[in-house]
Amino acid sequence: MAALSTTGPARDGNEENDVHHVHHARPARPxxxxxxxxxxxxxxxxMTAIETIRLLAALAVICAAAHGCGxxxxxxxxxxxxxEVVGGILLGPSLLGLVAPEARAALFPxxxxxxxxxxxxxxxxxxxxxxxxxxxxxxxxxxxxxRTGAIVAAAGLVVPFAAGAGIAVLVPARSPVxxxxx
Length: 182
Prior knowledge:
Layout: H1 49-75, H2 80-90, H3 96-99, H4 101-107, H5 113-140, H6 143-170
Helix pairs in contact: 1-2, 1-5
């Protein structure tokens, strides 16, 4: 009887007892090139289908919390916008992160495409909010109120810019901008 391989020495001269352990060779799995799964391939915007679903789920949860808290605050005769802000706070690390950190991490990851998309939407929303607030003030404001608003807006832009420029001049060694050698 022929064996595939043996381990250890034979105990006696008998061929049947020469093999202590026979290693049975398993047939090798056919090597196939990996086929990409559609849900993991990036789309034209750079996000995978799973990331897109996570983004839409995060947006749905944000909208539900904001509208729900806004409705609740409206029923309590409070400004609904305050309820919407409270709804956003409840989804942050103060409540959702404390109660269910895994759910918060799944909905709002710390980095990646979902975070980048949420950040871009946040920036766009903030821009639109400022635009609408300014447009509303412009309609209501009279002559004297417009002048006061212009002074406050100019001071809000000029003072921080001047302070930043002054600090950059005073502390050039800590500036992240590298200057070209002269």
